[in-house]
Amino acid sequence: MSKSIAYKHFIRALSRWPKDNLRPDCQFQDVMRKRIDKRFLPASSSNTPKAAQAVANSGIDERMELEQANVLYSLLENRYSRKYPITGSLMTPASNPHHYENLINELEEAPERSWFGRMTNKWKGFLRFQ
After folding, report:
1. Could you tell me the residue range of the domain that residue 109 belongs to?
2. In this structure, are 93 and 121 located in the same domain?
3. Has this prediction a pTM greater than 0.85?
């Protein structure tokens, strides 16, 4: 049985998806790949009758699946951030103007931080002196 066009698009989009350095053990593409394989590929167990497998595979709406694959591509290409750019004071709230800059810096530094660095930051969060 040949794989559907939507399945191929899902796999191509997930192969281009960036790795998450903060959670190396739980990747988005791995979770989605399991979901897609379960949806598109027939069950490999011999306990499932062939009629039940055929019914499970016939329930796939190819057009809807292609639309979902297109959503993955649009997220990969940052279509929405280009279409709706963030302007004005949205990224600089009055209460903490540098909040989002600090957040981005923290997310970039976190994957390379050592165990001692993580513990130091944890204790800095507990003890705030002014």
Report:
1. 88-126
2. yes
3. no
pLDDT per position in the chain (130 positions), as tens?
457 899 999 999 999 999 988 888 999 999 999 999 999 987 765 555 554 455 455 678 899 999 999 999 999 999 999 999 988 788 888 999 999 999 999 888 888 889 998 898 888 878 876 5
Give the distance from CA 62 to its chain's centroid. Answer: 22
Residues 94 and 34 in one domain: no
- On whether the CB atoms of residues 1 and 44 are closer than 8 A, the answer is no
Phi-psi region of 88 (alpha: psi -120 to 50; beta: other; left: phi over 0): left
Q: How many CB atoms lie under 10 A from the CB of residue 103?
A: 10
Structure tokens at 69: 């694959």
Q: Are residues 18 and 71 in the same domain?
A: yes
Q: Are residues 58 and 96 in the same domain?
A: no
